[in-house]
Design a protein that fits this description.
By secondary structure, this protein is mainly beta. Helix content is 0%, strand content 51%. It is built from no helices and eleven strands. The strands form two sheets. Strands 2, 4, 5, 6, 9, 10 and 11 form a seven-stranded mixed β-sheet that branches. The protein is globular. The relative contact order is 0.33.
C-alpha cells in the first residue's frame, strides 16, 4: 500500500543538527506538494515547512526560518528536512505529508 516512512530522528544536544528523511512509495510523489509537520506533547500539530511538487518554492514556520531547510529528490521519491541550531522547543514528533498520505512520525528530542 501507499507509504510514507520517516527516519533520522533521535536525541541531540541544543545547537546540534539532524536530517530527517521521508521515503514515499506506491504513489506518484513528484505530483504533490510535500510538507513536514510536528507535534509536541500537549500541543496541536503545526506546519514546519512545505515544498512544491517540483521543489521550486518553499515556505517555513517563523519559528524555524533560517535554521531548517526542506528539500526533495523526486528521482528517489524522498523528502528531507535539514535541521540546524536545534533548540529544546523543537522537540516533537515530526511527520511528513504528501497529498492525503501521512507518515508514522519520527521523534526528535533536543536536550542536554
Amino acid at each position: 500500500q501507499v507509504q510514507l516512512v520517516e527516519s533520522g530522528g533521535g536525541l541531540v544536544q541544543p545547537g546540534g543538527s539532524l536530517r530527517l528523511s521521508c521515503a514515499a512509495s506506491r504513489f506518484t510523489f513528484s505530483n504533490y506538494r510535500a510538507t513536514w509537520y510536528r507535534q509536541a506533547p500537549g500541543k496541536e500539530r503545526e506546519l514546519v515547512a512545505s515544498i512544491t511538487s517540483g521543489g521550486g518554492s518553499t515556505n517555513y514556520a517563523d519559528s524555524v526560518k533560517g535554521r531548517f531547510t526542506i528539500s526533495r529528490d523526486n528521482a528517489k521519491n524522498t523528502l528531507y528536512l535539514q535541521m540546524n541550531s536545534l533548540k529544546p522547543e523543537d522537540t516533537a514528533v515530526y511527520y511528513c505529508n504528501a497529498y492525503v498520505y501521512w507518515g508514522q512520525g519520527t521523534q526528535v528530542t533536543v536536550s542536554s
